[in-house]
Design goal:
Length: 81
């Protein structure tokens, strides 16, 4: 009986989808935590109000920056030639 390794096993689409899903959910949670911290800092000065629109725009920007950073790290941008 011959054993198959991961690349020969086939049907790994679910595994890849789970990994991508975990990355997206993790990035979304990190961006929400950072956005809440930014909101608390923003509202602590001069009695300002952080609107829903500002909250979601900030969350999206932080999520995209997290994606850029993880893409650079996982994509091998820092590999020296």
């Amino acid at each position: 009986m011959k054993f198959l390794n991961m690349s020969e096993g086939g049907g790994l689409g679910i595994l890849i989808a789970m990994i991508i899903g975990m990355l997206v959910i993790g990035g979304a949670l990190v961006s929400l935590v950072i956005t809440v911290i930014i909101k608390l800092i923003y509202e602590s000065k001069d009695n300002r109000k952080f609107t829903k629109k500002q909250f979601w725009q900030t969350s999206l920007i932080v999520f995209l920056v997290c994606g850029l950073i993880s893409g650079m790290m996982c994509g091998g941008m820092f590999v020296l030639n």
